[in-house]
Design brief:
The protein has 152 residues and is an alpha/beta fold. The protein is built from three helices and eight strands; from the N terminus they run ββαβαβββαββ. A hairpin with a 2-residue loop joins strand 5 and strand 6.
Length: 152
């Protein structure tokens, strides 16, 4: 089975092939102040369960993080809004919440993407927001931009 592990401050996931009967604790290193969450779910995972018990026959996607809430400051069109998210919340959901916070009409949202400030790389919608938070923080600032339009 495949387990994808995300951690704060790291780009992308570490992927490992493990036996279905392996305990998650044998696969994922967890420090004393960290929790493990299934990506897209706010419930803490019991790392003593096996990979098969947790994920069935599907690949597992987990986030190891110290924060219980992430403060996401989003900049758009010269304004800023703050949304709260669980670290395991997917970037897709944070994007939806940011669009709602700015009151952007649905007709104008098709090409909106989230990026780290001063970058041109779109954040992956399926990744957990906790993975883009700096390791020593429970907050992150993002830009909401139109990918298909010139910025400036």
């Amino acid at each position: 089975m495949r387990v994808h592990t995300y951690r704060s401050g790291r780009d992308g996931a570490e992927t490992g092939e493990v036996a279905a009967e392996a305990r998650l604790a044998d696969v994922v290193v967890v420090e004393a102040d960290e929790k493990v969450y299934r990506v897209g779910d706010e419930v803490e995972i019991d790392v003593e369960l096996t990979v098969a018990e947790l994920f069935g026959d599907q690949p597992g996607h987990v986030l190891v993080h110290k924060c219980r809430r992430i403060e996401v400051t989003v900049a758009y069109g010269g304004a800023e809004r703050t949304v709260q998210a669980h670290p395991a919340t997917r970037v897709r959901k944070v994007r939806e919440e940011a669009i709602k916070a700015f009151g952007i009409p649905a007709s104008d949202t098709a090409d909106l993407v989230l990026r780290l400030p001063s970058t041109t790389t779109d954040l992956r919608l399926a990744d957990p927001v906790g993975a883009i938070v700096p390791a020593s923080s429970c907050a992150v600032t993002l830009d909401l931009v139109h990918a298909g339009r010139s910025q400036g």
